Every structure is written in C-alpha cells, then in structure tokens.
Amino acid sequence: MTANNKRVLIITPSRIVAEGLITILTQAGGFTIERVISSISRENENLLHTIPADIIIADPSMFGFNILQTLKNRLSEFTTAPLVSLSTMPMSRTIAANFDEHISMFDTAPEIVKKLRNITIVDTSNSEESQDNNIGELTSREKEILVKVASGHSNKQIADQLNLSVHTVITHRKNITHKTGIKTIAGLTVYALLNNLITTPNENL
Amino acid sequence: MNIYEIEHNREIVHPNTRMADVIEADYRILPLLYRIGIELGFGEKSISEVCCESGINPNSFLLICNTYLLTDYSPSSELIGSANPSDLIKYLSSSHSYYLNECIRELEGLIDKVASDLPANQRDLITTFYKVYRKELENHFSYEEDIVFPYVRRVIEHKEENEKFTIGTFEKNHSNVDEKINDLKSIVMKYIHSTGNRFESMQLLSTLYILERDLMKHTFIEDHILIPMINLLEQSHDSQ
Q1: What is the CATH T-level fold of the domain A6-122, as seen in this structure?
Q2: How far is the alpha carbon of A171 from chain B, nearest alpha carbon, in Å?
C-alpha cells in the first residue's frame, strides 16, 4: 500500500458489485479501498466525515432524487472528492448530472480503471490555498471568511468581496467546519465571538 | 481491517429474543423502553411476551429497537407494513415530552452550572445560543404534535378527507434538530474552559453526546419508518 494510492469509498447495497469492483481496483493497483457501506442514513452520514476518500463511488439506483441531492450537499460539506456513479441500470439525465463521472456494470476493467485515474488528476487551476488544509488551526484566510459568515454574508457575497470563486469559498467553509466541528451559522458566530474574531453579536445568534 | 459495515438489513433482535438480552446487548436502549412504556422486572420473558403484556405490537418495538441498535439500519417494508402506526405515534409523542421535560431540564442545569464559572460575555453567549436552540426544538415538536400527529391519527382511523396536508408535506418540511447540539458539543469540548466545574463540564459533554445520538435516531424513525408507513396507508385509502 503506497502513500500515493487513491483512497476509495464504495456505497452499494450489493456485495457482489462491491467485491467485483474491489477485485478490479486491487489488480490494477494504485487504489486503496477505504470502506464499503451498504446505504446512507442520517446516522452513518456522520461516519462519512471520518472516512478519508479521494473518490466516492455510489450506486444511483439506491437513491431517490431527493436523497441524492441531500447526499451531494452533505458530501460537499466535508469533501471535494469526485462522486462517481456505478450504474446497474440506465438512469435519467437529472440523476446523472449529480455525478462527476460514470462507470457501468458493463464497462471493461481497463475502462473503469482509466476513468477513475483520470478523474483524480488534480486540477491545479482552482486549488488555490485550500487543498489539503483541513486539520490544525484556522488559517488567516479561513478566519477572514468565518468573520463574514458570522456577519451574515452569503457565499456569493463573500466570493465577490474577496475576489474568489464561490467554489473556493465553499471549500474554505468546509475546512472551517471540519476543523472546528461546528456546522450552523449560529454556532460559528459563537466560535467567532469566543475567539475574539468579532466583537458584537448579531441577529444570527 | 474489515472494510464492511454491519451487514445490510441484519436485524439483530427477533420477537423471541429475551428482553434482558436486548438491554445487555446495548444499554443505550433504556430510555427507549421508558418512553415506549415497558417497565423493568420482566424476568426471562421474550420481546413478544413483554410487548403483548404492555399492549405494544412486537413489530413496532422491533423497528424502534433496531434503529437504536444498528448503525446502518434499513427497515424492511414487511416489518413496516406489519407494525402498528398508533404505537409509533405514541412513542414519538412520549419522546417529545421526554426530550423537553427530562433531557432539556438536565441540560439546562448543567449549562447554568458550567456557564456560571465563565467570564460574563462567554456566559451570555452560551446561554443565549442554548435558549434559541431550545425555542427551535419546542417549535419543531409542537408543529409535529399540533399538525402532523393529528393528521396521522386521522389517516389511521381512515377519517382523512381530501386534505391539503399529506405525509409528503411533512417529509418536505422536516428538518434536523441535532446540528446545534453537535455545535454545542464542539464548543464545550474545545472552546470554553470552566475550571471550577470540571465534573459538570464532563457531565454536560456526555449529556450532549447522548442527546445528539438520540435525536438523530428519533429523526430516523420519523423519516424512515413513520413516513413510509403513512405513505402506504394513504395509498391504500386512495385506491379504495
């Protein structure tokens, strides 16, 4: 197992599918299977936070559209890992749009491996200062963004004010939540006040 | 390392499991017994015996119990179809009073104690954050008690008629009530320091952990058991 291996999280109710995928990825090399989970519930959503993954592969047939949207939002709170569909049957375009890449039951092993390798090539153009920065103290940029969040600014407003992309602001916010363990705006406001990042409480509390 | 979670759909308790063994397996289900109305002193009786004596459908008990025992539970539609929706409503409603009367009161005492030792500005922050949360929790529960549960009771009695409100309306509006408890946990654990009340601080943190898990399970029961159950009833009434 090398340090450069891509860490994979598989979400499928099918043991056969999971075992098949694991065999393909293990034989190809360059992948470490972190965990296989059979479904997503409120309970194990929290567990997802603790599984380090570079790629998340999920079977779309197990999600209704609403659940998929929720999953996508939840995932985006703490990871930027691409979400790959592993389809066992055809899916609608709206469902498909939620995934960053698609693999099918009928893809050949080399096709699957190639798709998964391509999708994890880091796009350095928008990685800015925020990649691999989700442990330790808040950076000065994160504190700056936290203050704006606590003052009631939206992601879009913060992006405009600091001349960043909304995507980057969201990545910073994920890192802030990951480091502090605080999810709500009210909670983040308390954090900012306790740490003297802002001095006056506001209507968010 | 075992990369697999608990096997999909594995229900670890059965109607014939002894009640004492269920508690032995995970004592965290004790508040659940209290809220569902099962009393201690049940000897060697099985789940179905104890449930029948307490007037509860054993399948209703299994659904609630498995939710608390398993991390990755997906209840089967057979079990959902064979449980009694009135048991669910009674349980959920009694849980609401338990949270508001027992948990919140305990939490409040601990927060007051821990906050009393903090600088005034920090004390005000923590208590305000908590009070706003308590209000939100009360509103959340009263919406369910005043709108959702009465509707569900009408569906159970087959007395609903062309109502605008359906269980789908509830599904859409249903929000989480555990996020701020999670935040308070992080704040108490990492960002305040009540030197004079080390014991109470630790008690407060464990109470928050217990309450957060309990509220998550509670929401799971509403989203993944109550809603599908009432959906089925609505559909069967529509097709009549």
Answers
A1: Rossmann fold (3.40.50)
A2: 19
